[in-house]
Amino acid sequence: MGEFKTIEWVDEKIKLLDQTKLPHQEVYLECEDYHTVADAIKTMKVRGAPAIGVAAAMGIALGAQNLQQKNMEAFLSKLQKIFDEFAATRPTAVNLFWAIERMKKKAKESGAGSVEELKTQLKKEALLIAQEDEEINRRMGALGATLIEDGDNILTHCNAGALATFNFGTALGVIRAAHAGGKRIHVYVDETRPLLQGARLTAWELMKEKIPMTLITDNMAGFFMFKGKIDKVFVGADRIAANGDTANKIGTYSVAVLARENKVPFYVVAPTSTIDLSIRSGEDIPIEERPAEEVTSVLGTKIAPPNVRVANPSFDITPYSYVTAIVTENGIAKAPFTTELEKLCKKESSACK
Are 148 and 185 in contact (CB under 8 A)? Predict the structure, then answer.
Protein backbone atom coordinates (compact mmCIF):
# COMPACT_ATOMS: atom_id res chain seq x y z
CA MET A 1 0.00 0.00 0.00
CA GLY A 2 1.11 3.57 -0.65
CA GLU A 3 2.65 5.03 2.48
CA PHE A 4 0.16 7.49 3.93
CA LYS A 5 -2.08 7.62 6.97
CA THR A 6 -5.57 9.04 6.62
CA ILE A 7 -6.04 9.44 10.39
CA GLU A 8 -3.57 8.98 13.22
CA TRP A 9 -3.38 9.69 16.96
CA VAL A 10 0.06 11.18 17.63
CA ASP A 11 1.27 12.84 20.86
CA GLU A 12 -2.24 13.63 22.12
CA LYS A 13 -3.15 15.20 18.77
CA ILE A 14 -5.08 13.87 15.80
CA LYS A 15 -3.17 13.97 12.54
CA LEU A 16 -5.39 14.07 9.43
CA LEU A 17 -4.43 13.96 5.77
CA ASP A 18 -6.17 17.02 4.27
CA GLN A 19 -7.98 15.49 1.30
CA THR A 20 -8.98 18.87 -0.11
CA LYS A 21 -5.29 19.41 -1.02
CA LEU A 22 -4.82 16.14 -2.90
CA PRO A 23 -3.44 15.13 -5.34
CA HIS A 24 -1.05 18.07 -5.69
CA GLN A 25 -0.11 18.50 -2.02
CA GLU A 26 0.16 15.88 0.73
CA VAL A 27 -0.67 18.13 3.67
CA TYR A 28 -1.38 16.88 7.20
CA LEU A 29 -3.48 18.74 9.76
CA GLU A 30 -2.54 18.46 13.42
CA CYS A 31 -5.73 18.84 15.42
CA GLU A 32 -5.15 19.86 19.03
CA ASP A 33 -8.84 20.24 19.91
CA TYR A 34 -12.07 18.54 18.93
CA HIS A 35 -13.52 21.62 17.20
CA THR A 36 -10.80 21.32 14.53
CA VAL A 37 -11.65 17.64 13.98
CA ALA A 38 -15.38 18.42 13.69
CA ASP A 39 -14.61 21.19 11.19
CA ALA A 40 -12.41 18.80 9.17
CA ILE A 41 -15.37 16.42 8.86
CA LYS A 42 -17.78 19.21 7.91
CA THR A 43 -15.46 20.70 5.28
CA MET A 44 -14.52 17.26 3.90
CA LYS A 45 -10.87 17.49 4.77
CA VAL A 46 -11.60 13.99 6.03
CA ARG A 47 -14.37 12.13 4.19
CA GLY A 48 -15.74 8.69 3.47
CA ALA A 49 -18.23 7.08 5.84
CA PRO A 50 -15.83 4.80 7.79
CA ALA A 51 -13.16 7.52 8.03
CA ILE A 52 -15.75 9.99 9.33
CA GLY A 53 -16.72 7.48 12.03
CA VAL A 54 -13.09 6.95 13.11
CA ALA A 55 -12.36 10.70 13.04
CA ALA A 56 -15.44 11.41 15.16
CA ALA A 57 -14.51 8.75 17.72
CA MET A 58 -10.96 10.11 17.98
CA GLY A 59 -12.27 13.69 18.08
CA ILE A 60 -14.59 12.83 20.97
CA ALA A 61 -11.72 11.16 22.84
CA LEU A 62 -9.48 14.17 22.20
CA GLY A 63 -12.19 16.53 23.43
CA ALA A 64 -12.58 14.42 26.56
CA GLN A 65 -8.83 14.55 27.28
CA ASN A 66 -8.93 18.36 27.21
CA LEU A 67 -11.93 18.80 29.54
CA GLN A 68 -10.98 20.28 32.91
CA GLN A 69 -13.95 19.06 34.99
CA LYS A 70 -13.00 16.68 37.81
CA ASN A 71 -16.56 15.96 38.91
CA MET A 72 -18.05 13.07 36.87
CA GLU A 73 -21.48 14.65 36.43
CA ALA A 74 -20.01 17.95 35.20
CA PHE A 75 -17.61 16.05 32.93
CA LEU A 76 -20.40 14.03 31.32
CA SER A 77 -22.45 17.19 30.79
CA LYS A 78 -19.56 18.79 28.87
CA LEU A 79 -18.96 15.53 26.99
CA GLN A 80 -22.56 15.63 25.73
CA LYS A 81 -21.82 18.96 24.04
CA ILE A 82 -18.93 17.30 22.22
CA PHE A 83 -21.23 14.49 21.04
CA ASP A 84 -23.72 17.09 19.79
CA GLU A 85 -21.11 19.04 17.84
CA PHE A 86 -19.98 15.95 15.95
CA ALA A 87 -23.57 14.85 15.29
CA ALA A 88 -24.19 18.20 13.56
CA THR A 89 -21.32 17.86 11.07
CA ARG A 90 -22.80 15.67 8.30
CA PRO A 91 -26.25 14.02 8.21
CA THR A 92 -26.07 11.13 5.71
CA ALA A 93 -23.14 8.88 6.69
CA VAL A 94 -24.52 6.56 9.37
CA ASN A 95 -21.01 5.53 10.51
CA LEU A 96 -20.72 8.97 12.12
CA PHE A 97 -23.74 8.35 14.34
CA TRP A 98 -22.71 4.74 14.98
CA ALA A 99 -19.33 5.93 16.28
CA ILE A 100 -20.93 8.64 18.43
CA GLU A 101 -23.33 6.13 19.96
CA ARG A 102 -20.50 3.69 20.65
CA MET A 103 -18.51 6.39 22.45
CA LYS A 104 -21.65 7.40 24.39
CA LYS A 105 -22.14 3.79 25.43
CA LYS A 106 -18.54 3.56 26.62
CA ALA A 107 -18.96 6.74 28.68
CA LYS A 108 -22.20 5.45 30.20
CA GLU A 109 -21.17 1.85 30.90
CA SER A 110 -17.42 2.12 31.56
CA GLY A 111 -17.66 1.73 35.31
CA ALA A 112 -14.76 4.19 35.62
CA GLY A 113 -14.07 5.29 39.16
CA SER A 114 -12.75 8.69 38.15
CA VAL A 115 -12.82 11.20 35.32
CA GLU A 116 -9.19 10.44 34.47
CA GLU A 117 -9.93 6.73 34.21
CA LEU A 118 -12.88 7.45 31.91
CA LYS A 119 -10.71 9.67 29.70
CA THR A 120 -8.28 6.77 29.29
CA GLN A 121 -11.08 4.37 28.44
CA LEU A 122 -12.55 6.75 25.82
CA LYS A 123 -9.18 7.06 24.12
CA LYS A 124 -8.74 3.28 24.10
CA GLU A 125 -12.22 2.87 22.61
CA ALA A 126 -11.49 5.35 19.79
CA LEU A 127 -8.22 3.60 18.93
CA LEU A 128 -10.03 0.24 19.02
CA ILE A 129 -12.64 1.55 16.56
CA ALA A 130 -9.80 2.54 14.21
CA GLN A 131 -8.09 -0.84 14.52
CA GLU A 132 -11.36 -2.69 13.94
CA ASP A 133 -12.04 -0.60 10.84
CA GLU A 134 -8.84 -1.76 9.16
CA GLU A 135 -9.47 -5.40 10.09
CA ILE A 136 -13.03 -5.17 8.74
CA ASN A 137 -11.85 -3.60 5.49
CA ARG A 138 -9.31 -6.35 4.93
CA ARG A 139 -11.99 -9.02 5.49
CA MET A 140 -14.29 -7.27 3.01
CA GLY A 141 -11.42 -7.03 0.55
CA ALA A 142 -10.79 -10.77 0.70
CA LEU A 143 -14.49 -11.59 0.31
CA GLY A 144 -15.09 -9.09 -2.46
CA ALA A 145 -12.02 -10.20 -4.40
CA THR A 146 -13.74 -13.55 -5.00
CA LEU A 147 -16.22 -11.67 -7.22
CA ILE A 148 -13.42 -10.42 -9.49
CA GLU A 149 -12.03 -12.55 -12.30
CA ASP A 150 -8.62 -12.35 -13.92
CA GLY A 151 -8.76 -9.77 -16.71
CA ASP A 152 -11.76 -7.82 -15.36
CA ASN A 153 -12.28 -4.16 -16.18
CA ILE A 154 -13.90 -2.51 -13.15
CA LEU A 155 -15.67 0.84 -12.84
CA THR A 156 -15.71 2.67 -9.52
CA HIS A 157 -17.38 5.95 -8.54
CA CYS A 158 -16.13 8.46 -5.94
CA ASN A 159 -13.42 7.29 -3.53
CA ALA A 160 -13.87 4.23 -1.34
CA GLY A 161 -10.21 3.54 -0.68
CA ALA A 162 -7.81 3.94 2.22
CA LEU A 163 -8.58 7.67 2.16
CA ALA A 164 -12.23 6.94 2.96
CA THR A 165 -11.41 4.62 5.86
CA PHE A 166 -8.82 4.25 8.61
CA ASN A 167 -6.86 2.04 6.22
CA PHE A 168 -7.19 -0.25 3.15
CA GLY A 169 -10.63 0.78 1.88
CA THR A 170 -14.05 -0.69 1.08
CA ALA A 171 -14.77 -0.87 -2.68
CA LEU A 172 -11.19 0.07 -3.48
CA GLY A 173 -10.05 -2.41 -0.83
CA VAL A 174 -11.70 -5.17 -2.90
CA ILE A 175 -9.81 -3.97 -5.98
CA ARG A 176 -6.60 -3.74 -3.95
CA ALA A 177 -7.04 -7.31 -2.64
CA ALA A 178 -7.72 -8.69 -6.12
CA HIS A 179 -4.62 -6.98 -7.49
CA ALA A 180 -2.47 -8.19 -4.58
CA GLY A 181 -3.78 -11.70 -5.25
CA GLY A 182 -2.26 -11.63 -8.72
CA LYS A 183 -5.42 -10.94 -10.75
CA ARG A 184 -4.79 -8.80 -13.81
CA ILE A 185 -7.36 -6.03 -13.52
CA HIS A 186 -7.93 -2.56 -14.92
CA VAL A 187 -9.99 0.16 -13.24
CA TYR A 188 -12.07 2.86 -14.89
CA VAL A 189 -12.30 5.78 -12.45
CA ASP A 190 -15.27 8.17 -12.63
CA GLU A 191 -14.03 11.71 -11.93
CA THR A 192 -17.02 12.23 -9.57
CA ARG A 193 -18.24 15.81 -9.79
CA PRO A 194 -18.58 18.21 -8.12
CA LEU A 195 -15.56 17.64 -5.83
CA LEU A 196 -13.71 15.21 -8.10
CA GLN A 197 -13.02 12.55 -5.49
CA GLY A 198 -12.39 10.03 -8.27
CA ALA A 199 -10.00 12.21 -10.27
CA ARG A 200 -8.20 13.62 -7.24
CA LEU A 201 -8.27 10.76 -4.73
CA THR A 202 -9.02 7.36 -6.31
CA ALA A 203 -6.65 8.00 -9.21
CA TRP A 204 -3.98 9.10 -6.70
CA GLU A 205 -4.39 5.93 -4.63
CA LEU A 206 -4.36 3.57 -7.62
CA MET A 207 -1.31 5.23 -9.14
CA LYS A 208 0.53 4.94 -5.81
CA GLU A 209 -0.13 1.19 -5.91
CA LYS A 210 0.58 0.84 -9.63
CA ILE A 211 -2.87 -0.64 -10.30
CA PRO A 212 -3.71 -0.10 -14.00
CA MET A 213 -6.41 2.56 -14.37
CA THR A 214 -8.06 5.02 -16.74
CA LEU A 215 -9.71 8.25 -15.60
CA ILE A 216 -13.02 9.11 -17.30
CA THR A 217 -15.62 11.84 -16.81
CA ASP A 218 -18.87 10.80 -15.14
CA ASN A 219 -20.86 11.02 -18.39
CA MET A 220 -18.53 8.56 -20.16
CA ALA A 221 -19.51 5.55 -18.03
CA GLY A 222 -22.46 4.60 -20.23
CA PHE A 223 -20.34 4.78 -23.38
CA PHE A 224 -17.75 2.35 -22.00
CA MET A 225 -20.42 -0.04 -20.72
CA PHE A 226 -22.18 -0.01 -24.10
CA LYS A 227 -18.86 -0.79 -25.79
CA GLY A 228 -18.37 -3.80 -23.50
CA LYS A 229 -15.34 -2.27 -21.82
CA ILE A 230 -16.62 -2.64 -18.22
CA ASP A 231 -17.22 -6.03 -16.61
CA LYS A 232 -18.23 -5.02 -13.08
CA VAL A 233 -18.99 -1.96 -10.95
CA PHE A 234 -17.83 -1.64 -7.33
CA VAL A 235 -18.89 1.30 -5.14
CA GLY A 236 -18.93 2.14 -1.43
CA ALA A 237 -21.87 3.38 0.64
CA ASP A 238 -22.67 5.99 3.27
CA ARG A 239 -25.87 4.36 4.52
CA ILE A 240 -27.72 1.18 3.58
CA ALA A 241 -31.40 0.85 4.47
CA ALA A 242 -32.95 -2.37 5.76
CA ASN A 243 -34.26 -3.23 2.27
CA GLY A 244 -30.85 -2.73 0.58
CA ASP A 245 -31.47 0.76 -0.81
CA THR A 246 -28.07 2.45 -0.77
CA ALA A 247 -27.04 6.07 -0.25
CA ASN A 248 -23.72 6.86 -1.88
CA LYS A 249 -22.01 9.78 -3.59
CA ILE A 250 -24.21 11.67 -6.06
CA GLY A 251 -24.05 10.00 -9.46
CA THR A 252 -24.03 6.44 -8.11
CA TYR A 253 -27.68 5.91 -9.05
CA SER A 254 -26.94 6.93 -12.64
CA VAL A 255 -24.11 4.39 -12.78
CA ALA A 256 -26.43 1.68 -11.39
CA VAL A 257 -29.09 2.39 -14.02
CA LEU A 258 -26.48 2.24 -16.79
CA ALA A 259 -25.11 -1.01 -15.34
CA ARG A 260 -28.57 -2.60 -15.34
CA GLU A 261 -29.22 -1.49 -18.93
CA ASN A 262 -25.91 -2.97 -20.06
CA LYS A 263 -26.11 -6.14 -17.93
CA VAL A 264 -23.06 -5.21 -15.83
CA PRO A 265 -23.05 -6.49 -12.21
CA PHE A 266 -23.26 -3.68 -9.65
CA TYR A 267 -21.69 -4.35 -6.24
CA VAL A 268 -21.83 -2.29 -3.04
CA VAL A 269 -19.03 -2.73 -0.48
CA ALA A 270 -19.57 -1.48 3.07
CA PRO A 271 -19.07 -2.58 6.70
CA THR A 272 -22.07 -3.60 8.77
CA SER A 273 -21.73 -0.26 10.61
CA THR A 274 -23.09 1.33 7.40
CA ILE A 275 -26.26 -0.79 7.52
CA ASP A 276 -29.12 1.03 9.25
CA LEU A 277 -31.90 -1.44 9.99
CA SER A 278 -33.91 1.36 11.62
CA ILE A 279 -34.35 2.90 8.15
CA ARG A 280 -36.99 1.00 6.18
CA SER A 281 -35.99 2.24 2.73
CA GLY A 282 -33.94 4.84 0.93
CA GLU A 283 -36.85 7.28 1.10
CA ASP A 284 -36.10 7.76 4.80
CA ILE A 285 -32.35 8.45 4.42
CA PRO A 286 -31.52 12.15 4.95
CA ILE A 287 -29.63 13.65 2.00
CA GLU A 288 -27.04 16.32 2.71
CA GLU A 289 -27.24 19.51 0.62
CA ARG A 290 -23.83 21.09 0.27
CA PRO A 291 -22.72 24.65 -0.59
CA ALA A 292 -23.39 26.05 -4.08
CA GLU A 293 -19.71 26.98 -4.48
CA GLU A 294 -18.83 23.32 -4.93
CA VAL A 295 -20.82 23.31 -8.19
CA THR A 296 -20.07 26.82 -9.45
CA SER A 297 -16.31 26.41 -8.98
CA VAL A 298 -13.72 23.74 -9.72
CA LEU A 299 -10.69 23.79 -7.41
CA GLY A 300 -11.24 27.48 -6.75
CA THR A 301 -11.87 28.51 -10.38
CA LYS A 302 -15.37 29.86 -11.05
CA ILE A 303 -17.10 28.17 -13.99
CA ALA A 304 -20.70 29.44 -13.76
CA PRO A 305 -22.41 32.85 -14.07
CA PRO A 306 -22.67 34.90 -10.84
CA ASN A 307 -25.84 34.35 -8.78
CA VAL A 308 -26.88 31.25 -10.74
CA ARG A 309 -29.37 29.02 -8.91
CA VAL A 310 -27.69 25.78 -7.75
CA ALA A 311 -28.81 22.41 -6.37
CA ASN A 312 -26.07 20.35 -4.75
CA PRO A 313 -27.25 17.12 -3.09
CA SER A 314 -24.14 15.27 -1.94
CA PHE A 315 -25.69 11.79 -2.21
CA ASP A 316 -28.32 9.88 -4.13
CA ILE A 317 -30.20 6.64 -3.46
CA THR A 318 -29.70 3.50 -5.52
CA PRO A 319 -32.76 1.25 -5.13
CA TYR A 320 -32.00 -2.30 -4.00
CA SER A 321 -33.32 -3.72 -7.29
CA TYR A 322 -30.24 -2.32 -9.06
CA VAL A 323 -27.79 -3.90 -6.61
CA THR A 324 -26.33 -7.31 -7.53
CA ALA A 325 -24.85 -7.91 -4.07
CA ILE A 326 -23.67 -6.12 -0.93
CA VAL A 327 -20.24 -7.12 0.40
CA THR A 328 -19.74 -6.78 4.18
CA GLU A 329 -17.15 -8.13 6.62
CA ASN A 330 -19.70 -10.77 7.69
CA GLY A 331 -20.49 -12.08 4.23
CA ILE A 332 -21.99 -11.19 0.84
CA ALA A 333 -25.71 -10.43 0.79
CA LYS A 334 -27.89 -10.96 -2.26
CA ALA A 335 -31.64 -10.45 -2.77
CA PRO A 336 -33.87 -10.63 -0.82
CA PHE A 337 -31.80 -8.03 1.02
CA THR A 338 -34.29 -7.50 3.84
CA THR A 339 -33.72 -11.01 5.20
CA GLU A 340 -30.07 -11.33 4.15
CA LEU A 341 -28.93 -8.06 5.72
CA GLU A 342 -30.78 -8.92 8.91
CA LYS A 343 -28.92 -12.26 9.04
CA LEU A 344 -25.55 -10.53 8.62
CA CYS A 345 -26.49 -8.05 11.32
CA LYS A 346 -27.32 -10.82 13.78
CA LYS A 347 -23.77 -12.16 13.67
CA GLU A 348 -21.77 -11.54 16.83
CA SER A 349 -19.23 -9.26 15.14
CA SER A 350 -21.90 -7.10 13.50
CA ALA A 351 -21.92 -3.33 14.00
CA CYS A 352 -25.33 -2.64 12.42
CA LYS A 353 -27.22 0.35 13.78
Answer: yes
Active site residues: 238
C-beta of residue 41 within 8 angstroms of C-beta of residue 56: yes
Distance CA 101, CA 351 (A): 11
Residues 329 and 196 in one domain: yes
DSSP designation for 289: B
The model's confidence at residue 112, banded by pLDDT at 50, 70 and 90, is confident
116 CB-near residues (< 8 Å, 6+ apart):
none
**Shared-domain flag, residues 146 and 291:** yes
pLDDT value at residue 111: 83
CA atoms in the 13 A half-sphere facing the CB of 260: 12
CATH number, domain of 169, equals 3.40.50.10470
- Indicate whether 125 and 146 sit together in one domain: no
Give the residue numbers spanning the domain of 130.
7-137
Which residue, of 106, 137, 168, is where some domain finishes? Answer: 137
What's residue 198's pLDDT? 98
Question: For residue 72, what is the domain's CATH number?
Answer: 1.20.120.420
- CB of 158 within 8 A of CB of 235? yes
Is residue 225 within 8 A of residue 264, CB to CB? The reply is yes
DSSP-derived letter for residue 188 is E
Which H or E run includes 107?
A: helix 94-109
Q: Are 327 and 268 in contact (CB under 8 A)?
A: yes
Q: Determine the pLDDT at residue 28.
A: 96
d(CA 83, CA 80): 5
Residue 351 counted as domain residue: no
Same domain, yes or no: 94 and 113:
yes
